[in-house]
Amino acid sequence: MFARERIKAKDLADVRAMRPAGLLVAQCLAALHAAAVPGRTTGELDDLAEAFIRERGGRPSFAEVPGYRHTLCTSVNEQIVHGIPGDRVLERGDLLSIDCGAIIDGWHGDAAISLIVGGREIGEPADVELMDATLDSLWAGIGALEVGRGLYEVGAAIEASIEESGAQDGRTYGIVEDYVGHGIGREMHMEPNVPNYRVKGKGPTVKNATTVAIEPMVTLGDQANEVLADEWTVVTLDRARACHWEHTVAAHSGGLWVLTALDGGASRLGPKFAPLGD
Ligand code: MG
Ligand code: MG
To answer: Which of 47, 82, 116, 204 is the most exposed, fewest CB within 10 Å of its CB?
Structure first.
């Protein structure tokens, strides 16, 4: 389906240059995680994120997408992605996904977290399991990114991880197929597409200094979805809850560096962790 795509070559200096934007997104999402308490509105989170990014020399990238003016996408419960921040008041037990992008020196970072408003200990068990399954699948996908291998191994690893979690949790999770990860660098959305599920073929071969955003979207019910009348918000058709996690990741011949993780991926990557120094 994406057979003609190629991965554009970057060099290691470009990857290093992307870390400040990635780190800023990571720090912003950490601040938002703490701020996403019951009673707060998604619009307030958006204001906080914009100030956080601008005060640290960055620029919110989503606001530069034609037709969109916010810093975040805030997707609550049955909303999968692209929820628009506004007057919605967060309630205890909401499953909230926050997607954030920033630009520093022309380089982009893009990442998303999910959380239970009020804390995971008060979440519905199914929501917490969905959240953990989605996050585990993200790291499985990241771990399958390797120079010299086909890019579509990422989606295969995500799907295998979701199947394994589903077997453990006693349910069949859905993986959203209508939205995919992407190349990232001087622009937020670049070739190649990065499916979060198994597709035919190997996909483009991962080159040294490849940077992609990997972002599984997983549902408690069926993966079928629709866009609301606001023309942005993507919701599950069956209105079952959905979850989304994302990281911007660099693959090079020495290993992996998760540009939007505070620790660069050290705690999850094991021997594949390979940050690039100066
Ligand atoms: Mg994103
Ligand atoms: Mg993205």
So the answer is: 47
d(CA 108, CA 119): 30
Domain membership flag for residue 7: no
- Tens digit of pLDDT for each residue in 189-229? 999 999 999 999 999 999 999 999 999 999 999 999 999 99
Q: 12-35 and 42-55 are packed helices; what angle lies between their axes, rounded to 10 degrees?
A: 140
Determine the distance separating the centroid of ligand 2 and the alpha carbon of 213, expressed in angstroms: 5
Domain range for 168: 12-272
How far, in Å, is the centroid of ligand 1 from the Cα of 99? 5
Q: How far away, in angstroms, is 111 Cα from ligand 1 center?
A: 5
Domain count across the chain = 1
Span 125-184, pLDDT tens digits:
999 999 999 999 999 999 999 999 999 999 999 999 999 999 999 999 999 999 999 999
Residue 5 within a domain = no
Helical spans, DSSP H, in the chain? 12-35, 42-55, 125-143, 153-169, 266-269
pLDDT of residue 7: 72
The CA 236 to ligand 2 mean position distance, Å, reads 19
Q: Report how far ligand 1's centroid is from the alpha carbon of 115 (Å).
A: 15
Give residue 47 CA to ligand 2 midpoint distance, Å.
20
Rounded-to-integer distance, Cα 2 and Cα 178, Å: 14
DSSP 148-163: TSBTTHHHHHHHHHHH
Q: Is residue 173 part of a domain?
A: yes
Residue 60 lies in a domain: yes
Ligand 2 centroid from CA 112, angstroms = 8
How does pLDDT run across 7-30, given as a tens digit for each residue? 776 899 999 999 999 999 999 999
Which ligand is closest in space to the CA of residue 189? 2
CATH number assigned to the domain comprising residue 26: 3.90.230.10
Q: Which ligand is nearest to the CA of 214?
A: 2
